[in-house]
Amino acid sequence: MSEGQQIKENTQQNEILIGMPKSGNPWKKLSTKSSTRTKRFHKVSWEEKQKQRQQKKELQDYLKEYKAEKEKQIQEEKLRKKNKKKQDELNKYKTADLQIIKESKNIKKWTKKARKTLVKLPAEIFETLLEKQRRR
């Protein structure tokens, strides 16, 4: 007998096979019962269950606190950025060389391009500019 035939016979002896064509290669294996395939779980005592529940609850509380802290940090960062942007805008107006237009009748005569450059100032900056002009 050759080595290939010996290997086939050994595998055939180990497994119960169903169906054998002329070539000698089986195509079906005998199925096992479902009761033997199911895994058996070890029973957990009441104390262990309570301990697991307590650990799970502690973890959930920790995650809840962590998420709340993260959300608070994000809100603070958003507020800080918003205030910084507002302050930058105010500083831009303060440093710019602006003219106060008292009579708005002349604006209608301006070109469209010139009207686009017209900017309304925030009230607090407008007051400071008026004071500066009065001092001059």
From TrEMBL:
Transmembrane recorded as keyword: no
Biased composition (Polar residues): 1-15
InterPro entries to which the protein is assigned, alphabetical: CCDC86
UniProt main location, coarse: nucleus
GO (cellular component) term, any one: nucleolus
Domain of life: Eukaryota
Stretches for region Disordered: 1-52
Name of the protein in question: Coiled-coil domain-containing protein 86
